[in-house]
Amino acid sequence: MEKILRKFDLRDPKILDLACGTGTLTLELTARGYKASGADSAPEMLRIARKKAESCSSSVTFFEMDLRTVQGVPTYDVVLCLYDSINYLLSLRDVASALAGISDLLLPGGLFIFDVCTENNSLKYFRDFTECEHGDGFSYTRHSFYRPRDRMQINEFEIRFDDRPGRWNETHRQKIYSSNEILSVIEASPLEMLRMYDDSSFRPATDNSDRIHFVLRKPPLTSS
Known about the structure:
CATH class of the largest domain: Alpha Beta
Strand order of the largest sheet: 3-2-1-4-5-11-10
Strand content: 35-45%
Distance between the termini: 34 Å
Number of helices: 6
CATH topology of the largest domain: Rossmann fold
Structural class: alpha/beta
């Protein structure tokens, strides 16, 4: 991500990490000297994020916010929405609503950087996938499978938090969009398309990409 910021000559940007989860990326950006804030729709994830910030004496701010109704926070030079969070928006109408709100959060000339998982990724890795992981303050077991008929990836989680007894079961649904569908929404949005990258490289995205990073820009102000 830092390489993209350098590539587009953004110096000392103010960053919003949308769908920040437990704040791992937000706090890493802050530790690297960036002015970063985080936002997420899940109160439990934000509780962990704030606890992590407190434990490392960070003053980073976390907001509760739904991607579909982005509003009510300061403006930024860069908005990030990574780890296929856009795939959690289950209709193109919701994606369009998110782009419109994110445009309002950006300063003129500011960047919106996001990624999506592709159908190639779901077919290759998530036809029938199980994993167990321990994260920052929680652990989970995940079972994922893909439904090609409606391009829906289903992720079933059993979650345990380190600081409380019990377990929570969640089912996450992700819509797997084609790149053309995403491009059509971008074209109708207030933002302009700059680049599509293959995963975390600077190679152009292709039909064989497992993940695509999009770089959009809010048009800069023009002098009259």
